[in-house]
Amino acid sequence: MQITTEWVHFESASRPMPDIAPPLRSGLLARLPEEELDQLRPHLEKIKLVRNQILFTPRNPVEHVYFVEQGMISLLADAGAGKAGIEVGMVGREGMAGFAALLSAHPVAFHHTTVQTPGSALRMPVAPFQACLDSMPALRERCLSYLSTLIVQMSQTATCISRHRLKERCADRLLAGCDRIESHAVPLTHLMLARTLGVRRAGVTVAVGALQNVGLVRCGRGNIEVLDHAGLEQMACGCHHLTRGQFDQG
């Protein structure tokens, strides 16, 4: 199913925020040796992430990488003709957006990459980032390890779409959202959830309603709150559990 995003780019979101001081909230960067962090800091700027902000579009140059400190970024498959398809990956505090910079000297984006949950990130231009990869073994190892887990997440998403029921997929997606934003309340409407899963809104309404009827979640205005995390895990298909295990190992 192809869906057209109505998201727009917010120039104001690119304004830097002050104070890039330790400790860094990026899970990826925080695990680096202090000497590598000291070399990275002059190239980092802290920016706000605004809901629906577009960071990358397919086949366009990647000029910055983003190390998420708070919030969540959604990777949406390219459905052609400027349309975004289903969500194939999520980036939270554990990772980075702009991973094409790890693969090419002149990187271009593979996905529609948008901010789903507002927050903040540390932004770094591609050229100094790639130079740092060459001179900082810990940074290179951490970024490549993250890329491998992201590939697992994307391949597992393909399996989930083809094999699992919508109610299971909804439960799985809510659990993944909780992990990424470190909260029990996921800022999603039924329409947004339907878009990320590539299904009709009516189907999501039925599926989430079933989860609510048995006390696993509570739907509010613009968000879905997880009330019973363990119960929701039992209802989910298990794809999130497999992917989370990969991130934990990384």
Based on Cα principal axes, name the global outline.
globular
Kindly identify the CATH topology of the largest domain. Answer: Jelly Rolls
**Percent range of helical residues:** 40-55%
How many strands appear in the DSSP assignment? 10
CATH architecture of the largest domain: Sandwich
Largest beta-sheet details: 7 strands, antiparallel
**Averaged pLDDT, please?**
89
Assembly category: single chain
Question: What fraction strand?
Answer: 15-25%
Rg result: 18 Å
Question: What distance lies between the first and last C-alpha atoms, to the nearest angstrom?
Answer: 33 Å
Describe this structure in words.
With 250 residues, the chain is an alpha+beta fold. It has two domains: 11-160, Jelly Rolls; 164-249, Winged helix-like DNA-binding domain superfamily/Winged helix DNA-binding domain (Arc Repressor Mutant, subunit A), CATH 1.10.10.10. 41% of the residues lie in helices and 25% in strands. The chain is built from nine helices and ten strands. The strands form two sheets. Strands 1, 2, 3, 4, 5, 6 and 7 form a seven-stranded antiparallel β-sheet that branches. Strand 9 and strand 10 form a beta hairpin. The longest helix is centred in the middle third of the chain and has 27 residues, at 137-163. The relative contact order is 0.15. The model is unreliable at 1-18 (pLDDT under 50).
